[in-house]
Task: structure prediction
Amino acid sequence: MKTKISLLLAAAVAFFALAAVADEPATNSAAALGGPAGPVPATVMPAPATVAATNKIVLTVVKVDSEETVGENGHGTNAVDGNPDTFWHTQWQDASPEHPHEIIIELTPPSVIKGFTYLPRQDDSDNGSIKDYEFYVSNDGDDFGQPVVKGAFGTGKDKKTVTFDPVKCRFIKLKALSEINDAAWTSAAEIDVVPNN
Result:
């Protein structure tokens, strides 16, 4: 008989404990982690959407003459992905095509630019870092005409900025004529344009 009463009492205590918990307001997960407790809101409002800048130019790689896709991730698209830790590198596995090397990039929307930037690869190697270059612009992606600027980059891992008279274009082409160590390769961590704002 005592066992039955004990079991009934235990069941009653458990029932009232569950009822008390059900009546408590729900708290957020911060309380469970030791943070301030508070009721969970009935509706959660999403954060306001970030509005992209209207003058942002999107760069898309259209063509590269060579890229290494077997020995490493040297895809041409790495040159415009916004990540300085990745880079475009011309082929070196099984073959090393000679200069010149080139990359063609589309600007969306077509824009007036007054220069471009070149960031060499940022790892411990300088293989492929461009020395002599030519830079072209085009409206149709086929006719690039004469280079708007040509020159030579110095050594070092810093971002190089080249400026020229403002010009409107839809496509740009960076042509590497040589490498700082006179090797056959070309590499670029990031290539970007300088808008004429």
The CA atoms of residues 12 and 18 lie 10 Å apart. The chain has two helices and eight strands.
